[in-house]
């Protein structure tokens, strides 16, 4: 699932490629992808792409006429620019923005479910959009005020992924952030001491900053379907922690896995799936 660093890199790298390009036509092969009707998507014909930005896990493609395409790629979507146009049998395309120079800006989604969505609206309405308006402060590039995380008794693992608290972090980067801060996923935010509060906000900033740098220095358009992620703990169950050498542990849920270093994050305690699922409620 793309999270803040992957989306920030996508916005910048694709944005550099297509800014200034003129739209020939725009269509939505994904039947349910468009969640707005006015203005219609085909009104983009003749418009010019101005920039691509990001807010939380949403991308915002802005056009010269003053409209913006707000999109959430959800768990399996991608925004890519292609030199060839999607064929009639392509089942992964959700939105196609065909450019006059022959290229195509494409929102694709792998798998059979159509979850990615997009809305076309006047730029000035983006911040008031019902999804955008509910987002907490962006996790990057600003540093979060310390009290954003510490004024609730929720466990850090669920709190930091709650887009209303802080926008942009999901299951991959929360593992990395908590490892960087040397804190337990189920530590309650209200139990953090002043130093731990500072460690969380620093870890959020530094971890995301490092990931974005990694992508921007290593990736080029066309972007790969799967980003090579610079991960220390997430998806590394059974491997050695690069900092202390302890074995990285994991808690398995039905559709995802939480990873952590027991030596540095839980005082040596191995989290049991049953126990953690209760604690995280
Ligand atoms: Zn460790």
The low-confidence parts are none
Summarize the amount of helix as a percent range.
25-40%
Pairing-aware structural class of the strands and helices? alpha+beta
- CATH architectural name of the largest domain: Orthogonal Bundle
Radius of gyration in whole Å, from Cα?
20 Å
Order of helices and strands: HEEEEEEEEHHHHHEEHH
Ligands bound to this protein structure: zinc ion
- What is the helix tally? 8
What would you call the shape?
elongated
The total tally of domains equals: 2
CATH topology of the largest domain: Helicase, Ruva Protein, domain 3
CATH class of the largest domain: Mainly Alpha
Largest sheet properties: 4 strands, antiparallel
pLDDT averaged residue by residue: 94
Assembly status: single chain
User: How are the strands of the largest sheet arranged?
Assistant: 1-6-7-5
Q: Give the percentage of residues in beta strands.
A: 15-25%
Cα distance, first to last residue?
22 Å
How many extended strands? Answer: 10
Could you characterize the architecture of this molecule?
This protein has helices at residues 4-18, 130-133, 147-150, 156-159, 171-180, 194-218, 262-265, 273-279, and strands at 23-27, 49-55, 58-63, 67-72, 77-82, 93-99, 104-109, 117-122, 249-252, 257-260. The chain is elongated and about 60 Å long. It folds into two domains: 4-133, Alpha-Beta Barrel (N-terminal domain of MutM-like DNA repair proteins), CATH 3.20.190; 147-279, Orthogonal Bundle (Helicase, Ruva Protein, domain 3). It is α+β, with helices and mostly antiparallel strands and 281 residues long.
């Amino acid at each position: 699932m793309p999270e803040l660093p992957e989306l920030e890199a996508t916005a910048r790298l694709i944005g550099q490629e297509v800014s200034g390009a003129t739209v020939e036509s725009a269509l939505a092969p994904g039947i349910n992808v468009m969640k707005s009707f006015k203005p219609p998507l085909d009104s983009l014909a003749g418009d010019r792409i101005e920039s691509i930005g990001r807010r939380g896990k949403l991308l915002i493609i802005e056009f010269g006429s003053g409209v913006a395409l707000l999109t959430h790629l959800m768990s399996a979507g991608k925004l890519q620019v292609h030199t060839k146009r999607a064929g009639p049998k392509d089942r992964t395309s959700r939105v196609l923005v065909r450019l006059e120079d022959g290229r195509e800006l494409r929102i694709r989604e792998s798998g059979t479910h159509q979850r990615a969505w997009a809305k076309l609206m006047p730029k000035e309405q983006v911040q008031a959009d019902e999804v955008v308006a509910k987002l907490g402060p962006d996790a990057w590039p600003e540093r979060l005020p310390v009290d954003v995380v510490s004024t609730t008794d929720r466990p850090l693992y669920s709190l930091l992924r709650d887009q209303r608290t802080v926008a942009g972090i999901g299951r991959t980067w929360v593992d990395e952030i908590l490892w960087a801060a040397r804190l337990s996923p189920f530590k309650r935010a209200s139990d953090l001491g002043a130093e731990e509060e500072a460690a969380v906000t620093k870890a959020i900033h530094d971890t995301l900053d490092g990931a974005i740098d990694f992508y921007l220095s290593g990736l080029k358009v066309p972007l790969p379907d799967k980003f090579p992620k610079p991960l220390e703990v997430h998806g590394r169950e059974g491997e050695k922690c690069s900092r202390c050498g302890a074995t990285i542990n994991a808690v398995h849920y039905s559709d995802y896995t939480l990873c952590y270093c027991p030596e540095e994050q839980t005082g040596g305690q191995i989290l049991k799936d049953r126990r953690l699922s209760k604690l995280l409620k």
